[in-house]
Amino acid sequence: MQNNWIENFNGLRRLPEDVKALLRSGSVVVRAPKGACIFAPGQTADNLLLLLEGTVKVIQKSESGREVFLYRVHAGESCVLTTACMLAFEDYSAEGTAETDVKAIAIPRAIFDDLVGKSPVFREFVFAAYSRRITDLFTLIDDIVFQRMDVRLASRLLELADTRQTVRATHVVLASELGTAREVISRILSEFQRRGWIEQSRGEVKLLDPDGLEHLARASGTHRA
After folding, report:
1. Is 99 helix (H, G, I), strand (E, B) or coil?
2. Helix, strand or coil, per DSSP, at residue 9
3. Which is nearest to 97 in space by CA: 32, 46, 178?
4. Which pLDDT band, with edges at 50, 70 and 90, does 68 fall under?
5. HSE-up of 22 (CA within 13 Å, CB side)?
6. Which tens digit of pLDDT belongs to each residue from 96-132?
7. pLDDT grade, residue 220 (50/70/90)?
8. Contacts of 66 (CB under 8 A, 6+ apart)
């Protein structure tokens, strides 16, 4: 893995061999178990993390304790907040938590700074990922401000469902995902169940009629594959 990890990231495959060699020799593989804190507000971003396995959930917490889901980092992606903090020499302002066991490549700041300045391919990789995620965050803001909560919940259930059409999340977790109160989520899920779209059990939501949820999400233009 230490020798071949670059092939997991499309934007890095075009790097010259000498730059690839620098990345391989200067980076390290890091691991974290499910539930581990990857970074937290006030911490310094010392390494660019490129995810090889698992998912990391990034959330923002207010002083009152309310949580707002920002985005997930999946295998083959980098964390845009880490990139922003490293570019601006700022500390983290949000929290990243391992949703599964994760494995990542850590590229130290010295190598990151050197390659951003000297390698057009590496610089393009960094800023292309940054641009995509910023677009996603603007879409999130639009959803929070303008979209109905039932529409947003339908879209998120479709996004989180596994191959068995099951979402393994409590009402509290779903409320955190959408930046609202648990009571709001519980009320909407009850309505979805009344319509025959879902079935609820402890810590799970089974999608009985994904097409019904899809119709609700697409009718308001919020569902994105």
Report:
1. coil
2. coil
3. 32
4. confident
5. 16
6. 999 999 999 999 999 999 999 999 999 999 988 888 7
7. low
8. 179
Angle of CA points 123, 97, 39, to nearest 5°:
60
Exposure letters 34-66 (e unless 16+ CB within 10 A, then b): eeeebbeeeeebebbbbbbebbbbbbeeeeeee
Residues 6+ apart with CB under 8 A from 48: 78, 82, 83, 86, 106, 107, 109, 112, 126
- Residue 82: Cβ within 10 Å count: 23
Distance CA 171, CA 203 (A): 8
CA pair distance 140, 19, nearest whole angstrom = 36
| Matching residue, tokens 């292309």 | 128
pTM over 0.70: no
Q: Alpha helix locations (H) across the chain? A: 17-26, 80-88, 109-118, 120-146, 149-160, 171-178, 182-194, 210-219
H/E element holding 70? strand 67-74
Instruction: Please name every residue paired with 82 in a beta bridge, in sequence order, or none if there are none.
Output: none
How many residues would you count in the chain?
Answer: 225
Q: What is the pLDDT of residue 158?
A: 95
